[in-house]
Amino acid sequence: MQTALSDIPVDSTREISGITEDSTVSRRLAALGFRAGAHVRVIGKAPFGDPIVVALEHGRVALRKNEAALILVGDSEHPESQ
Amino acid sequence: MSGSDNKPKTVALVGRQNAGKTSVLMHLTGTLQRPVNFPGSSVERVEAMLPHPTTPLVLIDLPGLASLEAVSPDEEITVGWLKDPDTAPDVICAVLDATKLALGLPLVDALGVLGRPIVIALTQVDLGGGVVDAAALSAQLGLPIVPVNAHAPRSREAFDALGKALREAAIGLGGTLTEGSIPPDYAGITALVRRVTSHKGSHTPSRQRLSDKIDRVVLHRFFGLPLFALLVFVLFQLLFYGSDPLMGLIEDGQGALSGFISGLFGDARPGPFESFLVDGLVGGLGATLIFLPQIAILIFLVSLLEASGFMARAAVLLDRPLSRVGLSGRSFVPLASSFACAVPGILATRTIENERERIATILVAPLMSCSARLPVYVLLIGAFFQPAVAGLVLLALYALGIVAAAVVALIMRRTALKGPRALLMLELPVYQRPPLGVVLRQVLSACTAFLAMAGTVILSASVIIWILSYYPRPAELVQSFEDKRSAIATLAPEETEVANAILELEEKAAFLEASALATVGKAIAPIFEPAGFDWRITVGILAAFPARELIIPTLGILYRVDSVDAGVYDTDELDEAASHDDGLRAKLREAKREDGTPAFSMLIALSLMVFFALCSQCVATLGAIKRETRSWKWPVFVFVYMTALAWGAAVLVYQIGSAAA
Question: For residue A28, which residues of chain B lie inside 8 Å, CB to CB?
Fold first, then answer.
């Protein structure tokens, strides 16, 4: 079972299981560090709920919900809260 | 490769954005030096010398790269330069952020293919949750690795060690990447990173925690936007009040220089050469230089926000509203800058990767009411509107520009610039105290660019307008003023001075009326008739082609009003000048009633201000658009669409207003 990064609640840490499509967008996501095995946590949402800000390993990245929807994460909360 | 000659070797600093390249360059060389453009493009890189008796180096700071797969036009130019054997640097200094090692290593892998010696500078060693074992990583990759830390007390030694490693690499004592030492897949890379990093624990470092706390306020769902609006308001106040005394200084300087030049020519009547120097050169350049303080302060504030990490948050905050009109958060900085001046605003669009969105931003940036429109607004509002509504009218003019920009952007993104939205994937750097050196360098660079433009485009435009407004000089007109002057000479000495001053104004107006500019103005006046403009306002619009504010001195001459300067915000002077001399005031009234109806009214003033809010009367902006889009197509398009829009709106205002009255 997997969920899209765009749907997980604020302050929950998950492990990325994969990126759904192969395109320029997914290559950009990969260059930023969105790859299977990496840990993400949604740390906030801009006014209007979009874009969202996520903690990715040690960095903070802002991206739109459209792109976040391509990133699949595991269903279970990851114990290691960074 | 040539061996022992003293020609400096080149070292390119390559790294991801925010990896700390610029900081490394500054600490290595102690200074920041001139930005240099890549040949045939506007992409900048910064070069600095690292002197040494035997192996001097030239360090080149390249724009940030995520990979060697170029995505934006800027990246394409940088990557092309790195790959071309003729231009490639002797040594590559890969600047890696220790906290994002897993993202930096694939870039090193790609750089290894270029076959040049590589030295790794490891930054942010104080920020991560772990400590990177540089020796272990160095052994794995076969490359020299120097941890540098700008904030650490012993940073000087670290940067000396980096300089030494770079020199060794330059003379062939360094290393090239061990093939296959960097795993091709992410899992392999994270395993490698884990192996060379000793964890102090997985807690978030304190600077990041503080940064997250600030973000909870700045990006707050409800308070985020109001707080942001407040900040923008404060910055604009700083901009206007801060630049005021400096602008006064430039104005005084211009006046003093004009006076000095006139003094050199003695009491003789102004000839063409004196007029050319005073009205053409000093006047034209002065009207432009007056904006230098605002540009410098604006760039200073914007760079401060940029370097502190705040600008990335502003882009996030405003992404959604700007997306509505086909732009994105990345358009925010260019558009906000354009309220001071569209030129730095247009230069700031370089950070937008999506070419169509970048051009759409450039096309609407000149619609933001810039500081050059302000003197025109203030003059006309002060003259024709009650003080009670003055602020409201001013606000409406600013709003008009914003609404027009939204509509134009939307139309362009649905038609000629149709295409997918630009991606918004921004790394939000940790908030930091902005490095003053970097900020000042950006201010210097923007000011030099502006001065270069003033010295070339604006200067030649001013000269052309001066020639058109000075020639031809009909012989009978020259003779008639000759006669009047002789008549004045017979008056009592105390009367001569006043009479001569009035005559000089009359003479200026008479010759301007006979000039080529006026001939053209009268010829095209029918076009502006529906907007309520007479031929003199039309001449003012023509004369303001190089820069909007030039309409003020031109109208001053045409309506025989003295002491109305561009950049004088205070319209009280108009009354003062008139009260000094009743004859002048009478002349002003006469000029207004020349063809039965007044030349100006509240409605005509409003129509003229709407025209100026929307028109593209600014050579500097058109020049910047040409430079940034590398094509004449877009500046021509901007001029045509904005002029048409301005004319249409002015006609609409005047016709509806006339019908309602």
Answer: 66, 71, 423, 425
